[in-house]
Amino acid sequence: MNNVTTVESFLVSYTGTGPDHAREALIRANERLLESGQGADMIIITTQGSAAYHSAIVCPRSKVLSAAYWGSFKEGVTKTIDLSSSDQPFEIEYMMRYFYVLDYPESESPDMQLYIHASMYSTADKYDVPDLRQIALKRFTYWCRKLGSGLEEEETEWYLELFLYAVYIIYDCLPELDRALRKPLTKTLARFLNASPELINLK
User: Fold this and answer.
1) Positive or negative, the Cα torsion across 118, 120, 121, 126?
2) Do the Cβ atoms of 156 and 193 come closer than 8 Å?
3) Helix H segments across the chain?
4) 117-136 burial string, b = 16+ CB within 10 Å, else e?
5) pLDDT tens, 21-45?
6) pLDDT exceeds 60 at position 153
7) 12 pLDDT tier (thresholds 50, 70, 90)
8) How many CA atoms lie within 13 A of 194 on its CB side?
9) Which bin fits 53, alpha (ψ -120 to 50), beta or left (φ > 0)?
10) To bridge 140 with a disulfide, which of 13, 117, 198, 202 should be the other Cys (CB 3.0-4.6 Å)?
11) What are phi and psi of 4, to 5 degrees?
12) What is the pLDDT of residue 62?
């Protein structure tokens, strides 16, 4: 019996919980820290104001933030990182939440899904958070397929406008060589073209 199996068996037999329960307990504890701010030692500034976070949770997840805060820069001295000049506040808020609980909010409105996930992919790329980038890619691809099929004619113009927001993020905010989001988006736009080509005057 290997060590992993031994530890898992011990957890189940002694506490009545396994690794999944332990993971959930850790996430709940992190969420409480995020909400309370207790013990926070770094300030992140956005255009909506400032919020306190824990460098021991945030910095190991992002090489960019780690270099700024733990490196030889003023951020390490002031204990403050100003991100107000180039990012949407929700992108930073969602990324920080992901660091604590391994998830970020999804919109209750289907029409906002592509914008949110494209934005989070771009943010993850900018701050070098590979696992967040993969989650955003999976969610973006899922919603491309979902929104690109079975739309009613009256819905097409509205959704096309939101696709164009995603196009802006993908083509203007990501490196030229990063084409991960382009394939699912292109396929979905092709469906829109077939459904209502007059909307974008390409046919």
Assistant:
1) positive
2) no
3) 3-15, 19-36, 55-58, 63-70, 74-78, 89-101, 113-126, 130-147, 153-172, 182-195
4) bbbbbbbbbbbebeebbebb
5) 888 999 999 999 999 999 999 999 9
6) no
7) low
8) 10
9) beta
10) 117
11) -60, -45
12) 97
The rounded distance, in Å, linking the Cα atoms of 78 and 138 is 37
Distances (CA, A) of 64 to 58, 104, 121, 160, 197: 10, 19, 15, 34, 42
Contact between 45 and 82 (Cβ < 8 Å): yes
**Residues in contact with 137: Cβ distance below 8 Å, sequence separation at least 6, in sequence order:** 117, 121, 180, 181
For the CA atoms of 25, 26, 30, 36, what is the dihedral angle to 10 degrees? 40
Tell which residue, 43, 177, 173, has the closest CA to residue 120.
173
> Would you state the structure tokens that stand for residue 155, as one six-digit string?
């819905």
At which residue do the structure tokens 């011990």 appear? 10
